[in-house]
Write a structure and sequence with these properties.
The protein contains 7 helices and no strands. It has 149 residues and is an all-alpha fold. The protein has one domain: N-utilizing Substance Protein B Homolog, Chain A, CATH 1.10.940.
């Protein structure tokens, strides 16, 4: 039998992981939706989005920094994606797949707190949930090429 204090720590870790996954999903949605709302500054777009999300201030801060970070590094991220994608540059990719890839590359390249395998797994899960039938395989293939470069 597992001691109660160990169970509680595991539950706390699971709660934190689910919370991070939920925040990642919101970050993805903000990245995706900004492509349709580019007449606003990115900070204004994020602020408007977060008004409808029930989150804590620390979570808002985390999500805001993540979205701004992706757009600050967008040129570099897109160069990496374009360098490994054959016949599918970022201009031809589905917006959902591209938003997921941008977030994944950002987490892998610019966030030391997120293990690479976690970023990949979470990205593939987002592709399964929001992308087309081929999105998980496509996203996984592109990100694998980037990681293995």
């Amino acid at each position: 039998m597992i001691p109660l204090n160990q169970c509680l720590r595991v539950l706390q870790c699971l709660e934190a992981m689910m919370n991070r996954s939920s925040m990642r999903e919101h970050v993805f949605k903000m990245i995706f939706s900004y492509e349709f709302d580019m007449d606003k500054a990115i900070v204004e777009h994020v602020t408007d989005y977060l008004e409808d999300v029930k989150s804590k201030e620390v979570e808002d801060h985390y999500m805001t920094n993540r979205v701004i970070g992706v757009f600050d590094q967008k040129e570099s991220i897109d160069e990496q994606i374009n360098a490994v994608s054959q016949k599918w540059n970022t201009g031809r990719m589905a917006n959902v797949d591209l938003a997921i890839l941008r977030l994944m590359v950002y987490e892998i390249q610019f966030d030391d707190d997120i293990p690479t395998n976690v970023a990949i797994n979470e990205g593939v899960e987002l592709a399964k949930k929001y992308g087309g039938d081929n999105s998980p395989k496509f996203v996984n293939g592109i990100i694998a090429k980037i990681v293995n470069r």
